[in-house]
Amino acid sequence: MVATYARPPPVFVKGEGSWLWDVENRKYLDFTAGIAVNSLGHCDPEVARLAAEQSATLIHASNLYYNPWTGALSKLLVEKTLESGAMHDASSVFVCNSGSEANEAAIKFARKVGKAIDPSGAKTEVVSFNNAFHGRTMGSLSATHNPKYQAPFAPMVPGFCQGTFNDVDGIDALVTDKTCGVIVEPIQGEGGVTAATDEFLIALARRCRAVGAVLIYDEIQCGLARTGRFWAHGHLPQEAHPDILTTAKALGNGFPIGAVIVNDAVADKIKVGDHGTTFGGNPLVSRLAHHIVSRLADPGLQAAVLAKSDIFRARFQSLRDRFPDLIGEVRGQGLIMGLQLTQDPTPIVKAARERGLLIITAGTNTLRFVPPLTITEGEINQGLDVLEEAIAATRA
Fold first, then answer.
1. pLDDT digits 0-9 by tens, 306-327
2. pTM for this structure?
3. Distance from C-alpha of 167 to C-alpha of 337, rounded to nearest angstrom
4. DSSP H or E stretch at residue 187
5. CA-CA distance, 394 to 396, in Å (whole number)?
6. CATH: 3.40.640.10, 3.90.550.10, 3.20.20.70, 3.40.1390.10. Which one for 50-296?
7. Going by DSSP bridges, is the β-strand pair 244-247/258-263 parallel, antiparallel, or unpaired?
């Protein structure tokens, strides 16, 4: 395998719910959910049943033809988005294979809209923000203004501009008549679990409308009930809703899939042949995603996410009281949470793993918590007991 990841020793061979087992049959409580992917937990019985059933029926026939499930998934995504109070003018969906692909499509769609608005070709700039993470393909990477990711592959795709996240005063100078699209995460996951303020997103949306730029919300990590709402922006007024919404991760609960939800203003500009995908929207993954969306759209599940978030917050406050020189701000919403530390969290991650708890990091010295949304209260407390032991061990 090409050495693109620095992996720790465990070799995982089995999963169930919030738990993983390695090749030596050691059990780990998973607070990572495959990086916010396994929202329904590992090896959900109904997902496994549908995967087996559909894989014996039809897996792939290509997008040259219709199948029952790509359209059904697209329809359901639009319906559940509208029902949730998010993206009020959502109308159509492009189904692909990953989050990076979803953002790549969103950028291409924004460029196409820009050319339709200004045939001179001057409206091509794409705006994104510091600490954002939008993917590893060349387009999505060009919107990820982090030298660590960009420098080895420079030069980037031209026409990408960087703004300061949550800087309302800088928006007018940043988003201009040359801007075709603005891409932003309502909650920056990789960047440190930092939420955009409502004021910032509303001002950003107003400016986009004023100059005719497409507003793209990247909810690949923070969407699909992770915040306790179906979409993280669902509480915002309609004027701050996006023209394009990208999703992936939890959409397949481990099966590769991404999706781009657009309104009519965008959909009307996309013509046959403008974009494509070989595997995207195949019957197997679309059927699974259809089932997963139905479950993640359940208000009962979302209410439970908020209740579980309160447990994390209370325990985090106890940890801050015990380790005040180590633990600072608690950030995030629902079950995407960050614990800001004053030092490198790597020893804590290692100590936790040695004690049977999987946690990951984000941003600068931030512990990130994105467990399955189906995790139980008992499992949360069990895992946080282990975390406290791990912190104590590293302090000693």
1. 999 999 999 999 999 999 999 9
2. 0.97
3. 22
4. strand 187-188
5. 5
6. 3.40.640.10
7. antiparallel
